[in-house]
Amino acid sequence: MNEPIYKKVAPPEGYSAPGVYATTLDKLVGLARANSIWPLPFATSCCGIEFMATMAAHYDLGRFGAERLSFSPRQADLLMVMGTIAKKMAPIVQQVYEQMAEPRWVLAVGACASSGGIFDTYSVLQGIDRVVPVDVYVPGCPPRPEQIIDGVMKIQDLIKSETLRRRYSPEYRSLLEKYGIQPIN
Amino acid sequence: MSNEEVLKQFLEKFDASDLHASESFDMLTITLNTGRIHDAIKFLRNDLGFGFLTDICGIHYPDAEKQLGVIYHLHNLQENIRIRLKTFVTIANPNVPTVTDLFAGANWMERETFDFYGIIFDGHPNLKRILNVDYLDYYPLRKEYPLEDPTREDKEDHFFGR
Prior knowledge:
In chain A, 33% of the residues lie in helices and 13% in strands. By secondary structure, chain A is an alpha/beta fold. Chain A has a single domain (29-178), classed as Rossmann fold, CATH 3.40.50. In chain A, the strands form 2 sheets. A 4-stranded parallel β-sheet of chain A has the order 3-4-5-6. Chain B has a single domain (3-160), classed as NADH:ubiquinone oxidoreductase Nqo5 subunit (Beta Polymerase, domain 2, 2-Layer Sandwich), CATH 3.30.460. In chain B, 22% of the residues lie in helices and 27% in strands. Chain B has helices at 3-13, 34-46, 106-117, and strands at 20-24, 27-32, 52-60, 68-76, 81-89, 95-97, 120-122. Chain B has a 5-stranded mixed β-sheet with strand order 1-2-5-4-3. Chain B has a two-stranded parallel sheet with strand order 6-7. In chain B, strand 1 and strand 2 form a beta hairpin. Classes of the chains: A alpha/beta, B alpha/beta. At the A-B interface, loops of A face loops of B.
């Protein structure tokens, strides 16, 4: 019988002693942020239904700390865009992204949010990365809940490895300016 | 009331010149010219009881002489009779009188027909695009575009192996 392979999450690098673990502040804050993501489910189409299944009991995204969904961008960390975004909706997605407080991440779920999907028409925005900077793309039409969870886990990896000063860096400012979004600081 | 009676009462009021009536799938269809369409709908609504406007849509026949058409579907709820009215205009002069004074629901339906076919409804209170973005500079459902527009910037050719 093969032993099941569980991916165990390794602790961040640091020095440990009985009762003490010393690591950098980046890693500690990253660990805290990664395990308590508050997503904003921007569910538009079919991918939204797969997200409903992901949040439900069987696939449970709440295990990863994303238990508290927020429909207010002011209180959310992760903008999950799930579904087809029309060109008329594009400025609204950008407005929702602008209202989120730093640090914020964007997950594009599904083919339509990543690239317009099969809807290469006059009315569909060919990917939300035309209006907001995207961190992780989850392909699929629709992606299975396991794939959406994989996307969230990749966001967690990004969060854990992010430096504290990233949002103040000139590269990040120029990234936002490329989209016409005012940097907060 | 049956379709024949409706048509008989209609023809008493509107003479049959430049008018074409037919029946398709048990639904009476009358094609009129643009000058009479408003009075025809007014007569049907007030005198014959067709008080429900089901739909206004447009159509584009690229091979016809009058290429653009507006099609109205009316329904008499008391007697359960439906009727279809068609009127055709040219692309150069796509003007049709509005029926928003008769049916409030025609407001958005005519805006949708304008948005997709470019048919101008004279007298409409707010004729602007409703479903498409405002900066769209063509009328999408007209049949004058090739299936794939090579100048459109939405499609990135290298993803499609071209």
